Amino acid sequence: MTRSWWGWGTDEHAVAGAELEALTSRISTLLPDHDLTDHAPPDPAALGLPPARISPPSTLAGLASDASADRAAHAHGKAFRDVVRNVHGSLDHVPDLVVRPRNERDVVDVLDWCSREGTAVIPYGGGSSVVGGIEPRFAGPAVSLDLGRLDALIEVDPVSRAARIQGGVLGPRLEAQLRPHGLTLRHFPQSFEFSTLGGWLATRAGGHFATLYTHIDDLVESLRVVTPVGVSESRRLPGSGAGPSPDRLFLGSEGTLGVITEAWLRVQSRPRWRAQAAVRFDSYPAAVNATREIAQAGLHPANCRLLDAAEAFINAGVGVAGGLLVLAFESADHPVGTLLTRALGIAREHRGSTPDGVVESGPESAAERTGAADDWRASFLRMPYQRDALARRAMIVETFETACTWDRFEALHAAVIGAAHDAIARIAGGGIVTCRFTHVYPDGPAPYFGIYAGGRWGSTVAQWDEIKAAVSDALAGAGGTITHHHAVGRDHRPWYDRQRPEPFAAALRGAKGALDPAGILNPGVLL
Amino acid sequence: MTRSWWGWGTDEHAVAGAELEALTSRISTLLPDHDLTDHAPPDPAALGLPPARISPPSTLAGLASDASADRAAHAHGKAFRDVVRNVHGSLDHVPDLVVRPRNERDVVDVLDWCSREGTAVIPYGGGSSVVGGIEPRFAGPAVSLDLGRLDALIEVDPVSRAARIQGGVLGPRLEAQLRPHGLTLRHFPQSFEFSTLGGWLATRAGGHFATLYTHIDDLVESLRVVTPVGVSESRRLPGSGAGPSPDRLFLGSEGTLGVITEAWLRVQSRPRWRAQAAVRFDSYPAAVNATREIAQAGLHPANCRLLDAAEAFINAGVGVAGGLLVLAFESADHPVGTLLTRALGIAREHRGSTPDGVVESGPESAAERTGAADDWRASFLRMPYQRDALARRAMIVETFETACTWDRFEALHAAVIGAAHDAIARIAGGGIVTCRFTHVYPDGPAPYFGIYAGGRWGSTVAQWDEIKAAVSDALAGAGGTITHHHAVGRDHRPWYDRQRPEPFAAALRGAKGALDPAGILNPGVLL
C-alpha cells in the first residue's frame, strides 16, 4: 500500500469504479449544474520545492529526509483545504526536513539540536490534522518530527487492564497488538486508520464512545513526554488529587509543550453483549429532547448519535422528517437489553418509533453482529476518501464541530445552520448542511456539521475559508466551543483566543516558557 | 450553634454523655493501660497571640478582623495534628487578619492590596484541610481570606441540569438551595457539613460516588477564578477539546493560582431507586479480587467500599474474617436491582456471601430507605467528632489515603500496613490499623487507612508525624499517590515533590509566575 501524499489514506483505497460512479451520480442529482471535472494531484517530486535550509548534525543524518515527496507529504494535514491545496500544488510552507526517530533518545537529541539552533519542531503522528496543526505556517526553517517508528506495545498489565504504548502507533496496529491479550482501547476516531495514539493525546481526540469516555483523556493513566528541558513521566495512577493533574496539561497541548513518546492507557475487555436500535422522529426538537433525556438518565449508551434529516438521508440512506437516533449499548460483562429498552421507552415518550426493531446479541451471536458493525464502520471510514474524490471535482465538502449546553443548543443550531446556509448561498449558490451529534453529555451535545456545496475550481479553498469564518463566528457567538475534538491547530486560533480565558492564556505562556524556553515546539499553535 | 475554634464542627455537637461513655469504654477494652484523662482546649482569646503586623486599607477595614478568636480559628485546619496543637494552645503561625469579602469585587480588592504590599493571602473555605493547607507556616504576615459570605446559588439551568454556585457555600446550604429545584450535587465528602464548594474544587475533593464521578473535578462545567492578574472564567461547556483544559489547571491548585469565586456544576435529579447489599468475605485477597472485577464490569455502583476486617469491626460493628464489601446502586431514572444482582454474582464467584440479604427500594418505598441511609451518613459524620474526643485523651487517631493500580495493590497494602504497624509499635507500643476503599476505578482502588494508638500526652503530634512519615514513605515507594482526595497542602509536600514530574513542576512554576507575579497566594503550598 502507498500512503497518499496529497489526500486521505492509501492510493489503493482511493474512490474508483462503481463507488466513484455512484458518488458522482448522486452529486449530479443534487447539483445538476456542477462541473464534475476531475483534477489530478501533481507528482510531489516535481513540485519544485525550495531546498532545505537546514541540515542535521551527523548523529541525526541517518534519520532525516529532505526528499521532496517526504517534505510535501508532511506539509499539510488532511482538512479539505489541505487536500485541495495539495491538488493545486500550492505548498507555501513545507518542512525543511522530515526526521524519524527510532527511540526516545533520538527524540531528545532532535529537541536538543533544534533548541540550540532555534529551529522549529513540529511533532507529526499520522498527519491527519484537520486544523492546520502540522503545517509550518511561519517564516523560519522547520523539522517535521515523524514519530511513526515509535509504534510498539511495550507492556500489558492485565490485572489493572492497562497497557503501556508508544505514541507513534497508528490505530490498527495498536489494536492488533492488544488483541492477543483479549484487550482493546476502543478508541475509534474517524481518522483511526491514519492517526496515532500520540496525536490523539496531543489533540484530545474524540473516540468511539458517545457517552462517558468520550475523549481519549479519560483513558489515560499516565504520560511520558519529552520536553526541551527534560522528560516528564507521571506516575501510573487510577486517580489522584495531588495538585493539578500533570497529564491534563499535556493533553491538548498539540505539540507545543513536548512530544508524547509513551502512555499507559486504560484498556478494556472486548465487548460480548450488544443491543442496538435506530429511532425515527418526525420532529427534530422532539428528537433532541429524547436524546437529552437519554443522556441524562445514567444509561451510558456506547452510541447515541442523533442525525438530522439531511444527515440521515445523505450518510445513512434513511428518509425521515425529524431525525434518526442511532442507539447502541455494549458490555464485556453482562447483557444490555434492559438498558436499551429503557432508552427506547424515553424515546417513545417523545414519539420516536423503531420500525426496524431492536437487534440484541450475546456471546453466541457475536460473529453476526460484528459483521454488521464492521459494515457501518467501513462506510464511516470511506467518508474521507469520498471527500477527496469530490474535492478533486470542485466540490466544497467539509465538516466542523462543537459542543454546547442543552439550554443553548436550539439557538446554536439555528444560528449555525442559518449562517452556513447564508454563507454557502452567497459564496456557492447554495448547498446542503447536515448535523449529527457525535457525543452527548448530561449537560449538552457535541454537534458535528457537514457542508456540501458546488465550488469553482481554483477558488474552493477561499470559498471554504469564508464559509468557515461565518459558521465559526456563529457557533462561538452562540456559546459553543470552537472544537470538541478536532483541536485548535492554526485554523481555529482566532476563535480559540476569544474563547480562552486570558489569565489561562498567561498561565499557558508561563508553562510554555518553562518547558520550551527556545520556543521551538510547533510555533503558532495555541500560543 | 457555635463553630468550634479548635476542633471539628460545632461545640454543641461535641461527643458527650452516653456517646462519650461508649467511646471511652471501647478504648479501655482495646487499650486497658491507656490514660484517658481529658485535656480541654484553652480560651482562644487568652492565647496571647502576637498583635497583627498589618492593617487593612480603609476600604477593606469593615471586612477585616484581628480578634484573637478569629485568628486562632483560622490558623489550623482540622487534621489530628491541628486539633491537638489547638488543645495545647500551640499556635506558632496565625494569620494577622481574617478578611471576609462580601462579593467578588472585595476579593479583587484584597488581592490587589496584598499584591502591592507583598502580603500572603490564604484562601479559606470551611477550614477543614487535613494537610496543613490553610496554615500560614512562613515568616511574613498573612491574610486568611474567608469566603463564607459568597454562599449563594446564583442560577439554575434545569434543561442542562447545571447550577451556578458561589465558592464559599458550605455543603448543607448548597444542597438546601438546590433542593427546591429537585436537584442535588450529590458530592458528600466526610467534611460535607463544614467544607465549601470552592474548597472542594481547589483540593479536588472526593465525594459520594465510589465509581465514575469520584472527584468533584468531574462535576465541573466551568470555573470563575480571581487571580492577581485578572478574572479567569471558562466557557460553560459539556466537553471541549480546545487546548489543555483551563479548569483542570485550577482544580487542585489549592489556592496558589487564584480564588475560585463561582462555578457552574453538573447537578443531578434526586435518586429514586436504590439497591444495596453488604457482602462478607472470609479471605481479603478474594474480597479484593471481587471488588476489582465489579469495578471493571461497567456496572458503576454508587457505593463500592471494601472494608478490611479491622475497619468492618471498628466502624461497622461487623465481625468478618476477610472483608465487608458495601455495595449500592442508585438512579433517578430506572430500577437498579439487576445491576446489584450482577455485582453480587461476581462477588459470589469469589465466595462472598450476603447473610443480611438485599435491600431494594423505589419511589414508593423511598421514605423508609432515606431513613436508613441517613442513619449511616449520620454515623459517618460523627467520626471527626469522636476523633476529637479521643485526641483530647492522648489517643493517636488519624487517617491517610492513596490510590494505586490493581497490580500494585497487594504489595502496597502489605508495605503500608507493615510500615504502620512497625511505626506504631515502635512509637506507641502498638495499636490498630484499618483499611477501606473509598473509591474504586477499573484500573485501581483508592485505599483509605485509619490508625488508632495510645499516645503520650504532650507528644502525640510528634508521634503521629513519625508514623505519618513512615507510612508515606511506604505508600510512595509502593507506587501510590501521596493523596487521592485529601490534597497536598504543606504536610504532603516532601512526597508530592518526589511524585510530581520535574518538568511539570517547572510548568506549574511558570504558570504561577504569570498569574501571581508577587507570589502572595498560599506560599509554601505545591510550589
What does this protein structure show overall?
Two copies of one chain form a homodimer. With 527 residues, chain A is an alpha+beta fold. The first copy, chain A, is built from 16 helices and 18 strands. In chain A, the strands form five sheets. Chain A has a five-stranded antiparallel beta sheet. A four-stranded mixed beta sheet of chain A has the order 1-2-4-3, with helices on one face. In chain A, a hairpin with a 2-residue loop joins strand 8 and strand 9. The longest helix of chain A has 26 residues. Chains A and B meet through strand 8, strand 9, helix 8, strand 11 and strand 18 of A and strand 8, strand 9, helix 8, strand 11 and strand 18 of B.
Short description:
With 527 residues, the first copy, chain A, is of the alpha+beta class. Chain A has helices at residues 17-30, 58-61, 68-73, 80-88, 104-117, 171-178, 197-203, 246-250, 284-295, 309-316, 337-349, 366-391, 406-428, 460-477, 493-499, 502-515, and strands at 64-65, 97-99, 120-124, 142-146, 153-157, 162-166, 183-184, 220-227, 230-233, 259-266, 268-269, 273-281, 303-308, 323-331, 358-361, 395-401, 431-441, 444-454. Chain A is built from 16 helices and 18 strands.
